[in-house]
Design a protein that fits this description.
There is one protein chain. By secondary structure, the chain is an alpha+beta fold. The protein has one domain (about 1-105). It has three helices and three strands. It has helices at about 1-20, 55-65, 95-105; strands at about 35, 75-80, 80-85. Strands 1-2-3 form a three-stranded mixed beta sheet, with no helix packed on it. A hairpin with a 2-residue loop joins β2 and β3 (about 80-85). α1 crosses α2. The chain is globular and about 40 Å long. It starts with a helix and ends in a 16-residue tail after the last helix. It binds calcium ion. Calcium ion binds near residues 92, 94 and 99.
Length: about 120
């Protein structure tokens, strides 16, 4: 029940931000995520692509895993391995539901986000 309350709070907190977000970060011509090769240039946790890791990214990620639009940035960390590197906040070198859980814990006082050790943000 506690997690449902936290998620509800985050959704309410950021719903207006999403409604007002005219710059989704998607390529305007193709409506596809921006892509680059290693070294990847991103902010850990910033799946919405606005340059910050905040509650909006948690909601964005939840919506993605429920069938919404994908994160705005894909990077090829190793040859042939393209993935949503900015979403990895638990250092597992993948983006999945565990990262959403870690994000919620971070914003409620948990451990700081950790990038994939093999694919850290470019300095
Ligand atoms: Ca991860």
């Amino acid at each position: 029940m506690r997690w449902i309350t936290i998620i509800f709070f985050l959704v309410m907190l950021t719903s207006q931000l999403i409604a007002d977000d005219s710059n989704s970060g998607l390529n305007e011509e193709s409506n596809q995520p921006a892509t680059t090769r290693f070294p990847c240039n991103y902010v850990v946790g910033d799946v919405s692509g606005d340059g910050n890791f905040n509650a909006l990214d948690v909601v964005y990620g939840l919506e993605y895993f429920l069938g919404g639009i994908p994160p705005v940035y894909i990077c090829e960390c190793t040859t042939g391995d393209w993935w949503y590197v900015a979403g990895d906040v638990n250092g597992s070198c993948s983006y999945n539901g565990a990262d959403i859980t870690r994000s919620v814990r971070y914003f409620t006082g948990g451990a700081s986000p950790q990038p994939c050790a093999d694919c850290p943000p470019a300095p």
